[in-house]
């Protein structure tokens, strides 16, 4: 399950998997590409696997399928380009402790290590700055959460993987890292990195297209399964697309297609500032009331605020700017960073308690799968789950137990 072939996977493996996918399409009553045009003329493109959603989750799966030797002509990516999805956030950080504990379990580490290696490789192969690594400094502010974090660090650090280093600072050691914190206590750890997520997703999409993956821009409005596979209806009345198997990687929009799931939308905001004044020459990335970090392009990302579900899209940027600056106040020693260059507002899909992603087959539906629910841990989980789901689709490999297959089984297609 863990072994992933590189982009140069042998032709024989690719041919075998391509043949298997085409047999699956044939069993579903679908013609394969090149077997005639009349069906395509009536229903649009055909594919063995259609991935709905071109954010980090969907693109991770496409990349993993290609890496395992799937022919690009057997893949279809459908994307509505939602500007509010998490993959469009202009400021994102990958680090091992995105939640409220510094003692995560074994499966978390398995996902983090796989995603760290994958994201770093993706970013470093591009000829543009998409990745900037730096230590993360988690400020201990004397509240209940800080006490819990330090206790979980003390209890869990002996089990950290070899690549993870962590230490506690206070006084002069703290002041050298972050002068504005004025010597206050903090936990410092690495590896951690700021990721240009929109830039990375654009690069992954461009690579997939250059290899021959068909990409259709549009919003999926209807899914209908039958003996001929899945008919995928797009908003606006375009001809239906057809595929033998469908994977829904639509993030917070999943509830428009699937019901009866514990789905909660989590709106939030991030801001971008020039690296001047108190934000100039940051030695570390800061994790406190707001994450503060230098982006790969040299500007500073700050996030996030959490918003109520009602009316979040109508919020004024001035209000967000003021809240984010207030959250930066303690870390920057009261210095004013000035106004933000950009405020981005978006929404993530949270399932259950935001501890486990939602990956697996949808009950009662033949060849329909879901890959979503990454919540606040998209960079930690999505690249790893792309590889896990690809292995499941192609080889029948087991889905990791940690993912919330139980909720996936409760989901039902909206009719």
CATH superfamily of the largest domain: FAD/NAD(P)-binding domain
Distance between the termini: 34 Å
Helix content: 25-40%
Structural class label: alpha+beta
Number of helices: 10
Shape: globular
How many domains, in number, for the residues?
A: 3
| Radius of gyration, taken over Cα atoms and rounded to an integer in Å | 22 Å
The largest sheet is: 8 strands, mixed
Query: According to CATH, what is the class of the largest domain?
Result: Alpha Beta
Average residue pLDDT: 86
How many β-strands, per DSSP?
21
Kindly estimate the percentage of residues that lie in beta strands according to DSSP: 25-35%
CATH level-3 fold name of the largest domain: FAD/NAD(P)-binding domain
Overall CATH architecture of the largest domain: 3-Layer(bba) Sandwich
Would you identify the regions where 5 or more consecutive residues have pLDDT less than 50?
1-14, 22-43
In words, what does this structure look like?
- The protein is 30% helix and 26% strand.
- It has helices spanning 11-27, 38-43, 56-67, 106-124, 144-156, 172-177, 197-210, 317-328, 378-395, 405-410, and strands at residues 46-52, 75-79, 92-94, 131-133, 136-139, 165-169, 186-190, 193-195, 214-217, 220-226, 229-234, 241-248, 258-259, 263-273, 285-287, 291-294, 300-306, 342-351, 358-361, 368-372, 412-413.
- Strands 1, 2, 9, 10, 11, 12, 19 and 20 form an eight-stranded mixed beta sheet that branches. It has an eight-stranded mixed beta sheet with strand order 6-7-5-15-16-17-14-18. The protein has a three-stranded antiparallel beta sheet with strand order 3-8-4, with helices on one face.
- α3 runs parallel beside α7 (197-210), α3 crosses α9 (378-395) and α4 (106-124) packs across α9.
- The protein is globular and about 70 Å long.
